[in-house]
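dumping the sequnces here before i forget
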Amino acid sequence: MKSWCTARGHRSLQRRWVAWGTVGALAWSVGLSGCGERAPVPPTDADVLAAERLRPARPELTALYERSCLACHGVRSAAPLTGHAPSWQARLQQGPDVLLAHTREGLRGMPAMGLCPDCSDAELQDLITFMSTPR
Amino acid sequence: MSRRHLNRRQLLSGAAALGLVDALRGGTLAPWLVSEAHAQTPTRAPAAPRRWQNWSGLQQATPATWATPANEAEVQQLLRRTRGEVRAVGAGHSFTALVPTDQTLVSLDRLHGLVAIDRAAMTVTAHAGTRIGALARALDAQGLALRNQPDVDVQTLAGAIATGTHGTGATLPALHDEVVGMRLVRPDGELVEIDARRDPELLAAARVSLGSLGLVTRVTLRVVPAFHLARHVWLMPVEQALAEAPELAQRHRHFEFYVLPFTGYAACIRHDLYQGADLALPKSADEDVLSDLKQLRDWLGRFPRLRRWVAQQAIDPQLTESARHRSHRLLSSVRPTRFQETEWHVPREQGLACLRAVVDRLEQRNEAFFPLEFRFVRGDGAWLSPFHGRDSCSIAVHAAADEAWAYLIDDFTPIFRAHQGRPHWGKLHRLGAADLAPLYPRWADFAALRQRFDPQGRLLNAHLRQVFGIT
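..and the predicted 3d for all of it:
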């Protein structure tokens, strides 16, 4: 499919649609899918494979990470990748309390408690810190 | 026309698939449940009642007790010392109300990891709370792999097999068919070890149990040597996809396709064994595809003919996507967009006819935009397997999690039933025992076994009482 972020970015299509107001205008401008670059700097294959091997220093935290967070944050997915700074930048700017709240309550694809029903707030915070620390 | 890279199944599956479990704060391992070995570990659970919800947000509950036992002995103690209803939760990816209980909810998250590998038998034993993705990674480190994987891999082993979770592949069975042994704790606290050689009938019953026989603590399943796959995603007109699907399914190790509603196109995905060294794992475009389909719906949903025409102009049929890597990195994906889903399994020979009827019905609903998923699954012998005794095609219909979804049941149940469909146990349906019994030749046998394992019905919540016809 032609991507509709092809020329001017994803949002530009809507502007064109409104401005031109004709069906014909869509014929060359619309595209479905394929864009894939909404994150500022998507992780490379090397980033993903490196993230898969990252573990917290503390064994007890490693155990929680491996059975919970790694499923989404240690693989190629829409979740911010462990150790990949660009993926975390905007989230970190919201502050640790917001990140913790989102983890506890869930947000979009993020399940409440991040697949760790027995995690304490301190453990969740430590896991967030580990994942968001650039490597 | 330049070829662009598309991304695979993601196209949505909405997949999501699936998901997770949602646990909201705190486990609830009651103090008396904490073994000496774990007594020194930090408190693993706040005691206050907390809400549970499934991945899609549709199912919710506030259990009085939320237990997170750390080992098999604690599971036994839990069942012996508690009274009343008990339900186990895995990743919470079931859309049906298999989990909700206001009494005791048991998370097996702490029963995690490999127990043993038998390279001679090519089997592994894992704790039942091990997530499929984690299991796959642990196997990969040992040069092993699962023969096939479902679309979503955060599910726990116990949850996945209990619901008949599956991937795609005309010659590949669902995950539960790989199970050759398991240990489960009955509601009375007795540990039962089931082995395929010693008691194949009991294992055939226990493979897909909806969590109604006991709490599964360990699973032993067949594995294969680790392998690479090459994925190729491409577009075809829907009619062409339907015409070629049987041959494609026969020719490729894994084949599936997604009908993109109101576009006239289908996205086809195939995976085949790969021996090359030029590995690549590009970012999936699924979410972007989904977003674009939604946008097209938002703009032109009221004008279906125009919507289709625009899609036809916009879609570049030359677009492809490819990836080459370890099987576990390609067969499963993470679904960030939440949705509701129904999926039914119909006899292989009725699959395409059923799909046509489903597409026709779906495209009468202008609000629909999620791709419709069509997969192939080999038959097996588990008593409550939706693939019992017949090779099948699986047809899944999705709706956004924050939009109306009842039509997934109301519109499509009659179509699927007309094609002898059996619903996925974890995906939306309203069938009860009277509907289900005729679909499963071993239904009565399972009912008798369930009564023997759980005479008090402690493992039955409201949904399972409806499924099993118990008042």
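Residues 1-39 of chain A have pLDDT under 50 and may be disordered.
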